[in-house]
Specification:
146 residues, alpha/beta, Rossmann fold, six-stranded mixed beta sheet, 5 helices, 6 strands, globular
Length: 146
C-alpha cells in the first residue's frame, strides 16, 4: 500500500485514474493518469471536469512529469496534482514548485524527512507553481515600500 502525502484541505479523490486514451472514450471520468509519453496539453480542454491528475514517475531520473505539472497548473488546473511512482524525498521541494500537491511514492518516507526537504530552501529564484514569490520580487517590494 502506497502512503499518500497531501498538501490540500479537501478530501482525497477516491476515483481510480484512467489512462489518457481511456479518458477520451469516457464522459464521466474525473481522474486521469499521465504516463511519460503522454502530452499534458491533451487534457487542457477538460480541466474543469478533472479532479485529479496523477503523473507517473517510473524512474526518479525521468523529469517529463515536472513539465506536465507546469503545463497543467499554468493552464489553470486547480484540482489535485499527484506525483506517483519512483518519487524520492529529495524531489519534493522541486515537485511542489512545479505545482504538485500530493505524492504517492513507491517507497514511503517519513513525514519528518518530507518536512525537512520542503523547508530546505525558504527562498526561490524563479517563478513557481506553488505560489511562492521569487526573492527578486520580494526585494523589489521591499525597495518600493522603503
Amino acid at each position: 500500500m502506497v502512503e499518500l502525502l497531501r498538501f490540500r484541505e479537501d478530501e482525497p479523490v477516491a476515483d481510480p485514474a484512467v489512462t489518457v486514451d481511456a479518458f477520451s472514450d469516457q464522459s464521466n471520468a474525473s481522474a486521469v493518469r499521465l504516463e511519460p509519453g503522454d502530452d499534458a496539453r491533451d487534457l487542457l480542454p477538460f480541466l474543469d471536469q478533472l479532479r485529479l491528475v496523477e503523473i507517473n514517475f517510473p524512474s526518479f531520473g525521468d523529469g517529463r512529469g515536472y513539465s506536465a505539472a507546469r503545463i497543467l497548473r499554468e493552464a489553470g488546473f486547480d484540482g489535485e496534482l499527484r506525483a506517483v511512482g519512483d518519487v524520492l524525498v529529495d524531489q519534493l521541494s522541486h515537485m511542489r514548485r512545479c505545482g504538485f500537491d500530493s505524492f504517492a511514492p513507491e517507497k514511503p518516507f517519513s513525514p519528518a524527512d518530507a518536512q525537512a526537504a520542503l523547508s530546505r530552501w525558504p527562498q526561490v529564484y524563479q517563478a513557481t507553481g506553488d505560489g511562492r514569490r521569487p526573492i527578486w520580487a520580494l526585494r523589489h517590494d521591499a525597495q518600493s515600500n522603503g
